[in-house]
Amino acid sequence: MDNFVEAEEIAKLWNISKRQVQQLCKDGRIEGAIKFGKVWAIPKDAKKPPRKSDLKPGPKPKIIKGE
Known about the structure:
Helix content: 25-40%
Shape: elongated
Distance between the termini: 54 Å
Radius of gyration: 16 Å
Low-confidence stretches: none
Strand order of the largest sheet: 1-3-2
Largest sheet: 3 strands, antiparallel
Strand content: 15-25%
Order of helices and strands: EHHEE
């Protein structure tokens, strides 16, 4: 477990809240994150995922009404 840190330490590194890190882990956006009980173990070398607002939007699905 020497290669892992908790969400609080990653939050300080990435300058975001602990809760945001936990949500990123829950959403599967941090590669290699593992949950042990109530604690997330995150690899020390994990990369901060891009914000969803920074991602380019894809085509929106067409909604067909009346079918």
